[in-house]
Input
Amino acid sequence: MDETPSTTPTAGGPRGVGGLDGVELRHLRAFLAVAEERSFTHAADRLRVGQPTLTRTVRSLEETLATRLLDRTTRRVELTTDGRRLYTELAPLLPRLATALRAPGSQPVLRLGFTSLLPAACAERNAAFEAATGAGVRLVRRDTPLAGLDTGESDVAVLRGDAPPDAGVRTRVLLHEPRVAAVGRLGAAGTLARRRVLDWAELADHPLVVNTVTGSTRPELWPADRRPRLACTADNFDEWLEAVAAGHGVGVAPQEVAMRHTHPGIRFVRLKNAPPVTVHLALPIRGAHPLAERFFEMGAEGTG
Output
């Protein structure tokens, strides 16, 4: 169970520079983990510390800054106004600080973010980058729209579909992937599962299951006068897969993702006349890591 309401100082804005003497990296890491997980329990697991220790660390930060950063209840944790401001500033800075403090002479590392599944074509690109720069590539999966790019958990990211509006990123086309239909073997969609090929237009007659966080298919891809009904939504690929298997509706996924995932209750069926999924590389507009700039510029098809 998460923490009950605490007696931390009321919000009034952090103190001046003189009040920051007691702030340590462990305080900031603890705050970021709780802010991202929205749970002391999950954040403690992520940091591999005890929950009481984590609670004391965050409370110490609040006392040092003389402001409440988190509103706690027995069921959830939310950021206060000061907490949101601090998180926005810290999220991209802390990973860069860790890089700056890396031991001299150690191998530099580029963090490549992705969602659900990294395209197989990236393996060759990663190897070429490592050979050209001497840097390593660390793969970071984050089931968020920007694959950790906005929170500073990745330096460059592979995104399927367009980046969210006003995301503050530059994009470049990496490749295009064909789409396939994901059809449950039971229920009303069972007859579709026996087909070898489906037409994109046919799917407008069936309810659609949509992954709203990292998915690349929305009803808006069909003509305005003939769109599928939204059956239900999912927050990640695994939830989406289970919803399709449960017969809630038909799903659509990139072919490569479908080929590398199996589910006994789902059959992936080839789609004709479906628009391809455009896969982009994404980079922050400002403050991009130099290694990320190098990776971004390597042999892409075009600019987004």
Q: What stands out?
A: The longest helix spans residues 81-100.
